[in-house]
Amino acid sequence: MSGLTIDHISHSYDGGKTVLQGVNYHVGDGEFHCLVGRSGCGKTSFLKIASGLMKAEVGHILLDGQQVLKPIADAGFVFQSPTLLEWKTVLENVLFPIELKRKSTLEEQDRAKALLELMKIEQHTYSFPLQLSGGQQSRVAIARALIKNPQYLFLDEPFAALDAITREELQDDLLALCAHHQMTVLFITHDIAEAIYVADHVLVMEEGKIVHTETIDLPKPRTLDTRYSSRFNELGFVLRQALEGVPVK
Amino acid sequence: MKWAPVFSSFVFIGLVTVWELAARSMSELVLPAPSIVFPLLWTELKTGYFTPHLIQTGIEVIAGLFIGSLLGFLLGVFMGEFPWLRSLLSPYVIASQAVPKLALAPLFVLWFGFGMTSKIVITAMICFFPLLENTMTAMQRIDRDKENLFRVLHATRWETFIHLKIPEGLPSIMSGLRVAVVLALVGAVVGEFIGANKGLGAMIIASQGMMDTPLMFAVLILLTVYGMLLYGLVILIEKIVFAKYLYWGERK
């Protein structure tokens, strides 16, 4: 089966509290999946295991039918904090996934600049990370995750620390990029509205289990009108109920 | 803060004035006045009397600092990178530091002779620990998300070390070196106290024997200036060689 399959995953840290309990899920190629849940429900562990960054105690991850034993090579990753290398310029940070192994080509440098332009931070190409605002740093982190044109993108609450307007701008930018590159995305957030706006499918997690999945049938491309549509609010209500443990009709 | 150097100069002038006034009320043998010490220092510098001693202490400090810092850095890297080595060696490293190293100075003179070697060994031993401790801590305190980033990028251990741990740990490592450079002078001078015929420490002992307190003060001033210059040299190296790794926090 093509896509990313999470097959009966269970995990606990050092034999202590169980963070994931027999999770099964499938992420189809080119789909955008969002994971919502309260803090400590196992979202980050799920993402780390699904991306191959961490090994599950029980169960396994399959990528196009092949077992994943190390971080997926064809993937970009955006962490909760931007994790930029402060001693490198913005351009050097974006090119870093390439330059770690070899010198970047002129085409790759042009691609990095184009990504910075797409993320609307081209004026900071030669700035250092600490000269940028939090939102700008997040944009650089996303550009870095996309530099190798990955098939898969894993994002762990990348916009959690940002203000509402910047978040919405970044959500639009991310959606445009993902649509353009036909990427398969697994995105963690604790914001229901954000999940509905960006995703094709939303999973609700609670105490290490997926308790609800919802297909988001909102039209694309998503715009400001989407946020104020009645269907958006209905979906928000359904997911809110799922998060609070109320049986969803 | 642009007036800080001016105020600092006023503090210096104030201290020298207090020293001068205090010295006038007692014997030159106890506290020689700056009006005696500074001309003496200048004269002896001009005649070259201090030169061989300055060179001797300088070589001991530089060699001891280099050897001790390098060994401390290397062991710090290994102990930071390999937890089993840390568990194995930590008790011995702590024990070696718990022994007052200056108390070992006579033993080193006995083992390595009155020449330069014993002073270099003492200096190296003193410089070893700040680098070891700071490097080991730097290796352990790497941002977990950044480490994960390197794992996602399939970086080898060496690549993670070179591209993440060293640059990220450099501020801590360099602060260890700044501590070591000041301690290096202490090591060399104490070594010379125990047994040497050359060097600034030996001069202090000689001036004590001759009851030449102004000379002793002149040497003390030389040592202070020496220590400050060495410290300044480390800061200069930081600013020239490692600026982009150390001063990114100031770009905010």
Automatic annotation (TrEMBL), chain A:
Coiled coil: none annotated. The keyword Transport applies. The keyword Zinc does not apply. One of its GO terms (molecular function) is ATP binding. Residues 4-232 form the ABC transporter domain. Keywords: ATP-binding, Nucleotide-binding, Transport. InterPro entries: AAA+_ATPase (IPR003593), ABC_transporter-like_ATP-bd (IPR003439), ABC_transporter-like_CS (IPR017871), ABC_transporter_ATP-bind (IPR050166), P-loop_NTPase (IPR027417). This is Nitrate ABC transporter ATP-binding protein.
UniProtKB/TrEMBL annotation, chain B:
InterPro entries: MetI-like (IPR000515), MetI-like_sf (IPR035906). Gene3D superfamilies: MetI-like. Its main location: membrane. The keyword Secreted does not apply. Pfam families: BPD_transp_1. The chain crosses the membrane at residues 6-23, 61-85, 105-132, 175-195, 215-237. It is a multi-pass membrane protein. It is found in: Cell membrane. The keyword Plastid does not apply. It comes from the Bacteria. PROSITE patterns: ABC_TM1 (PS50928). Keywords: Cell membrane, Membrane, Transmembrane, Transmembrane helix, Transport. Residues 54-234 form the ABC transmembrane type-1 domain. Belongs to the binding-protein-dependent transport system permease family. This is ABC transporter permease. It comes from Sporosarcina ureae. The lineage of its organism: Bacteria, Bacillati, Bacillota, Bacilli, Bacillales.
